[in-house]
Amino acid sequence: MQMMSSERPACGWLHKLLVLLVKLHFAFAEPLQPLNGTGCTAKGPASYILVFTGHWSPQAFPKQYPLFRPPAQWSKLIAASHNRHFRLWEEGSSASPGVQSFAEVGVTVELMKAAKEARKKRTVGVMYRTAGIPNGIGHSSTEMLMVPRNPLLSLMVKMIPSPDWFVGVNSLNLCDGNRWKQEVTVDLQPYDAGTDSGFTFSSPNFPTSPPENITKITSQMPNHPANSFYYPRLKELPPIASIKITRQRRTPDRQTSISNHILPNSINPQRFSATPLDCEVSLWSSWGLCLGPCSRGGVRHRTRYILLRPANAGSPCPELEEQDECVPHNCIKKRQ
Ligand SMILES: *[C@@H]1O[C@H](CO)[C@@H](O)[C@H](O)[C@H]1NC(C)=O
Ligand SMILES: *[C@@H]1O[C@H](CO)[C@@H](O)[C@H](O)[C@H]1NC(C)=O
Ligand SMILES: [Ca+2]
C-alpha cells in the first residue's frame, strides 16, 4: 500500500535507477572503445616488477665524482603508464615545468599535477614511484600493473647533485601486439633538461635563458673540458644506470605501488668498468723574473698546476714547471 500511495519515493527510486544506468553505461563504454595508436591487443593487464639500478661509481665516472655535500645519489623514481597521446619528457623537446622542477631540484609536485590532468583525459593510467637511493650505486624497485590501453612506460630519476641532469626512458612499449613482454632491460644515459647552464655536478644555480630543449649528455657533448661528463677518450659513456622490467605471474596489490623491495635474482652482477681519466693542467703562468749572473746569462721559470688528477691509468700529468734562458734585466741596463 505504501508504494502505491506515495508517488514521490517511487519517482526518486526511478531517478536513482536512471543515474545508475547512466553510470554503468559510462563505466562499461570506455573499455569497449577501439584502442587507438599503440595497438596493444593483449587480453588483460600485466603485472611487472621494475628495478632501477644506479651504476654511478667513482671508477666508471672518476671526473669530479661528488663525494661530499651532497655525495652522488639518485632521487626518487617517477614513472607513468600512458598511451601515445602523453609525453613525460622527450629528447629534442622543451622540458615541461614539471620536468624542469624535477630535473633541477627533485620536486615532483608539478609533475604529479600534470599527470593528474592527463589522467582526467585518460592519456595516463597510473603513476608509480620508488624511494631515492642515497648512493651512486644501488637499487630501487616498484610493482606496476600495465593495462592494454596504457601500454607505454615513461620514467625519470634525477642525478643528485647536478644542475638539471636526469636519466629516464620515454614511451617504452611493454606490449608487443597481443602479448605483454616478459623482460625488458634498458641501459640509461644522462640527459640535460636544458633549463640550467651549470657544467659540473655541483655548479651553482644558473638558469639557461632562454631555455634549451632536452639533450643527451655524451662523453663529447657538451664539448667543453669543464663538463663533468666530458671524457674525450671514450667513444661513449658507460651506462650510468639501468632498468630491468620483469613480468610477474601474480597480480599485485594495487595499494602497494610505493615499495622499495629488492629482488636478489633480478639484480645484475655489478659491471666493473674503470674509465681512464687523463690529467688536466692549468695554462702556464706568465714568466717569472729573469735571475742569474750577467756573465752566464739568466734563467726564468713559469709554472702550471693540476686541475684534475689522473685516475684509472689515464695519462699522467705533464711537467708543471718550465725554465728558459734569458738575459737578466739589470744586465741589459749595464750593457747599454
Ligand atoms: C587515433 O589515431 C589517429 C592516428 O593514428 C589520429 O588521427 C586520431 O585523432 C586518433 N583518435 C583519437 C580519438 O585519439
Ligand atoms: C624544441 O622543442 C620544441 C617543442 O617542445 C620544438 O617545437 C622546437 O622545434 C625544438 N627546437 C629545436 C631547436 O629542436
Ligand atoms: Ca643544463
Automatic annotation (TrEMBL):
GO terms for biological process: cell adhesion. Residues 1-29 form the signal peptide. Residues 36-225 form the Spondin domain. Gene3D superfamilies: F-spondin domain, Thrombospondin type-1 (TSP1) repeat. SUPFAM superfamilies: TSP-1 type 1 repeat (SSF82895). One of its GO terms (cellular component) is extracellular matrix. Transmembrane segments: none annotated. The keyword Transmembrane helix does not apply. SMART domains: TSP1. It is found in: Secreted, Extracellular space, Extracellular matrix. Keywords: Cell adhesion, Disulfide bond, Extracellular matrix, Glycoprotein, Metal-binding, Secreted, Signal. InterPro entries: Spondin/Thrombospondin_T1 (IPR051418), Spondin_N (IPR009465), Spondin_N_sf (IPR038678), TSP1_rpt (IPR000884), TSP1_rpt_sf (IPR036383), TSP1_spondin_dom (IPR044004). GO terms for molecular function: metal ion binding. PANTHER family: MINDIN1, SPONDIN. This is Spondin domain-containing protein. It comes from Poecilia mexicana. The lineage of its organism: Eukaryota, Metazoa, Chordata, Craniata, Vertebrata.
